[in-house]
Design goal:
250 residues; alpha+beta; Phosphorylase Kinase, domain 1; Aminoglycoside 3'-phosphotransferase, Chain: A, domain 2; 2 domains; five-stranded antiparallel β-sheet; three-stranded antiparallel β-sheet; 45% helix
Length: 250
């Protein structure tokens, strides 16, 4: 597989620019086909909503024994890069919130349900005891459901900015559910990156623009934090465990 410029790299995937395409290569040769095609299917289902501010998936290929997904390439800077370079972070957070609300206004009945995903994630945890697990699942069952498109990791590094506007990438965690849970996941994402001030600013701005109650967003925090524990990232463990004390949010 002849690849050009490396765009991003993580434990499981590498993303390259190749001409007018963006190629996401799964590092493990034995990556299950179901994982690869589920990501492709999820992206396609969001595309089918008519949302134009995203790349188009071209297809899945297997070269040199590794699976890869090909997308149209969107040139530009990530919003994360811009926020680090420019002092206008609050203005940029406002634009990010506008885009987030636009995403949450989408509907796709074909996407997996967020509450089902959260339930499975919590049920599969072995890091918390059964009592805590029961408390979290009980709280989850009582949370209001909805059918909004939720990105699942709506963070500045997943937003590309160019002279045509702002575009959202990495839709593999997209689900349908309550947009306040999606906002809580963004808040948590900032905290996990040790950007608590940005987390608080974003929560305030998002809620002002969406007409949402910040308390209602915070009620989702122990649930989304518990679900994040499934990835077993040592650097996240301590902070996530501090968020799952359900009593603080009842």
């Amino acid at each position: 597989m002849e690849l050009k410029k490396l765009i991003s790299d993580s434990a499981k995937v590498s993303v390259f620019e190749r001409g007018d395409k963006c190629v996401k290569v799964f590092k493990e040769p034995d990556e299950p086909k179901s994982v690869v095609f589920y990501e492709a299917l999820t992206h396609t289902r969001v595309e089918e909503t008519g949302f134009a501010k995203m790349s188009e998936i071209i297809g899945a290929v297997k070269e040199d024994g590794k699976w890869a997904l090909e997308y149209t390439f969107i040139k530009g800077k990530t919003l994360d890069e811009m926020m680090r370079e420019e002092p206008r972070s609050e203005e940029l957070l406002g634009k990010m919130a506008d885009l987030h609300i636009e995403v949450n206004a989408l509907r796709s009945g074909k996407l997996s349900r967020l509450k089902d995903y959260l339930k499975r994630s919590i049920e599969g945890l072995d890091i918390i005891d059964d009592v805590k697990k029961y408390e979290l699942l009980t709280k989850l069952s009582g949370m209001e459901d909805a059918a909004a498109v939720c990105h699942g990791e709506f963070m500045p590094e997943n937003i590309i900015v160019n002279d045509k506007g702002m575009f959202v990438v990495d839709w593999f965690k997209a689900k349908q559910g309550n947009p306040l849970a999606d906002a809580a996941r963004t808040y948590l994402g900032f905290c996990l990156r040790h950007r608590t001030e940005s987390a608080e600013k974003y929560l305030r701005i998002y809620c002002e623009k969406a007409g949402a109650d910040p308390k209602k967003v915070r009620e989702w925090l122990p649930i989304v934090a518990a679900a994040q524990l499934k990835f077993k990232r040592p650097e996240e463990r301590e902070l996530l465990l501090t968020w799952i004390d359900v009593a603080d949010y009842l």
